[in-house]
Amino acid sequence: MNPIVYAIPIFFLMILIEVITTIIRKKDYYRVNDAINSLSTGMLNVTTGVIFKLGIYTLIYNHAALFSFDGDTLWVWTLGFLLQDFFYYWNHRKGHEINLLWAAHSVHHQSEEYNLTTALRQTSTGFLFSWVFYLPMAIFGIPPHIFLTVSLFNLLYQYWVHTRHIPKLGWLELLFVTPSNHRVHHAKNRKYLDKNYGGVLIIWDRLFGTFIEEDESYEAIRYGTLKPLRSWNPVWANLHLYTEMFRDAIKTKSWKAKLTLWFRRTGYRPADVATPMKMPDIHIYENYNPEASKGLKVYSLIHFAILVLATTVFMAISHNTPYGFNTLWTIVLALNLICIGWLLEKHTGLIIVEAIRFVLSGATIFVSNGIWIDLIPGWTWQFIITSGTVSLLVLQTSGIAKPVSYREGNSARAAGS
């Protein structure tokens, strides 16, 4: 079973604790729409990971390893941890410095909030290139099970540093990635850009000149990307920069630019397509927060929670289910998440969107049971029919799907809601 399955309840328990702490401290660190979008990209990350397992590290290790180390000795595990963290630093750093790599990594930085849901906001396309950075470990001879374990530890460690509630931690700031120095990494303030790339250890940033300390006397940190996403569509969040580069490659008349723009410095666009990007004034941006009624937010949360449960079950069984089944349900999950994002940013056609979503999900169960017998419990039919009917009636009769008027929206904004 995928070990992430065991971590999911812990992730959400910690999110609940942080939400309660945020309410008690009367802070504004959470928004329903932003949190759902972050978690949606995380769900796409783990489910697409089921169908896009490359296994290149093991392949290289089996055929090109220079040394054969005992995978049960402490020093090999320690070396594996240090090497993985070192190469993670360079993977992460180049993910900010090269157009093609930033197109993948930018997903993690798109949230304009900074909380534990941001930690789960992960790319679904990073697997395409990140493996390259760890090939030296495979060639050197670090066993695959050690690489996979320390990589998982690195990923899980980074979860807790995505919070604004924990202050600086004294001497720990000298050695480890902490909430303070990772807040700096997510900042789009000019002073903090492209700093603090470490995964577990901050010593790599100190060694290679990319460390900067959080300055609490400086202006408040603003989160997100310099060019805001402004969408709650988790699939578009993963693809929009690739699409933009592809369009630039088509438009430019320079063959050199067509071939090299992918590997140029982040933000580069051909001169005959766009003028060089200037550092924008981040203070002119309002966070993307399209108006939605409280009822619609509650409705979206309930249905999103069902999708979270479905994703957890899918991850728990995916190692025993056929590849076709896993692919189909990954696609259907993505379409469901797109619809949830649509609910939170559109004001018309919501009933039609939901009707299509329920029909699509029901049809997928029908197809699954027709091809892969007994993989989907029979009661799911009744659940889809019942929940779909109730949901459409609620949307139709309660008025929660009606647009928030311009006046109501501005009143809510003025009140700080």
Automatic annotation (TrEMBL):
It is a multi-pass membrane protein. It is found in: Endomembrane system. It holds the Pfam family FA_hydroxylase. Keywords: Lipid metabolism, Membrane, Oxidoreductase, Transmembrane, Transmembrane helix. Residues 77-210 form the Fatty acid hydroxylase domain. InterPro entries: Fatty_acid_hydroxylase (IPR006694), Sterol_desaturase/TMEM195 (IPR051689). GO terms for molecular function: glyceryl-ether monooxygenase activity; iron ion binding. Coiled coil: none annotated. One of its GO terms (biological process) is lipid biosynthetic process. One of its GO terms (cellular component) is membrane. The chain crosses the membrane at residues 6-24, 36-60, 131-157, 298-317, 323-344, 351-373, 379-401. This is Membrane protein. It comes from Endozoicomonas elysicola.
